[in-house]
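ok trying this again, last paste got cut off
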Amino acid sequence: MTFKAKLLTVLGAALVATPLAASAQGWGDYGGDWRDRPSFAGYPQFQNEKAHIRGEIREGLREGWLDRDQAGDLLRRLQWVQRREAREFGEHGWNLPYWDRQQIQTSLDQIDRAVDQARDRGDADDGGWR
């Protein structure tokens, strides 16, 4: 095989492999099912608030003002928001529309407020939680 033929073979293989690798890592087009994108960790504008909520839930368990059931409820609500983000990413990619961004932010604010209310009550009894 000549040098030119080898070069064309290598370049052809690279052109085929690059889109496949990008698609496998979630960098390609946004078509398909959002559940096929395990590498999507969420929109960056929500990462700090989600980390803050998780930290408060851990603190509540450690200090006793949240019980395991309450923490589980809050974490399930947070997971719902994360699934919503993944669905929106599957539909819109990185260009999250304003309305969807506002709905996600409102959901996070409600979860944060619920954690704050549990802390203000100061104990892990049901105290009007449910």
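PB: full thing came through this time. The chain is about 70% helix and 0% strand.
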